[in-house]
Description:
Blueprint: H1 10-16, H2 22-31, E1 37-41, H3 49-52, E2 58-63, H4 66-70, E3 78-82, E4 95-101, H5 109-119, E5 120-131, H6 138-151, H7 160-164, E6 175-177, E7 183-188, H8 190-198, H9 201-208, H10 212-226, E8 233-245
Parallel strand pairs: 1-2, 1-4, 2-3, 4-5
Antiparallel strand pairs: 5-8, 6-8, 7-8
Amino acid sequence: MATNWFDQGGANYAAFRPDYPPELAASLADVAPGRGLAIDVGCGAGQLTLSLADHFDAVIGVDPGADQIAHAPAHPHIRYVVAPAEATGLEGGRADLITVAQAAHWFDLPAFYAEARRLAAPGAVLALITYGAAVLEPDLRDRFDRFYVDEIGPFWPPERRLVDSGYADIDFPFTEIAGPVTQIARDWSLADLLGYVGTWSAARRAREAGRSDLLDAVAADLAAAWGDPQRLRRIVWPIRMRIGRF
C-alpha cells in the first residue's frame, strides 16, 4: 500500500463515510460459488463488511489501519485483521468472495492480485467497488463541484483519478462479470456532509499544507445555501465496480 491517508481518524470515518446498499452484498453473494467465507480487504471501518455478514457464514475484514479496525462494527460472524492488502497473513484457498470497497486505488495491484489468488477458493469472485464524487441537490451542486474539482482538486493524491474513472482504467486480469447498477443515497444534514468531506484524503492533505481556509470557505458557502442546517438533503454516489472470477 502507498501512503495510508486513513491511518488516523477512524471515529470520523465510521461516523461519516456512507455504507453500501444491502442489495450490493446480496448480488455479490449470488455470484459467489459458496457462502462460506468473504474477505473484505481495505475494509476501513466496515462500511461494506457488516452487510456481507448477512450472506456468509464468516467474514474477515482486513485493513492496515488499526484505528480504522478499532471503529469497525462488531458482529459474531466477523473477524478483523490489521494487515496490508498485499500480505494479509490469512489461510489460503478458502474465500468464496473477496471484496475491495473504495480502496483498490491505494493498492499495489499486482501484489494484491497475487495475494487474492492465494486466498481464493476455486471459482471465487473478486469485486473492486468504488464511488466517485457526491452528487448534491441542484442548488448546492455547482458550489460543491467547484470545490471538488478546482479548489480541493489539487490536493487529491494521484490515485484518485482511478476513482473518478470508475475503475475503468484499472488493470483487471480476470474473467469479468456484469455487476448491478446501483448507488448510495443518503439524506444528510449539513454537519453530516461536512463531516464526510473532512474524511477525504484531499482534505487531510490540504490541512497539512496549511490550506484549511478552503474547507472553511466551502463550509460557509454551503451553510448559506443549505438553510436550516438540520434540514436533510439528498446526497447520491453512483457505484462503479469491476467483478471477476478466478
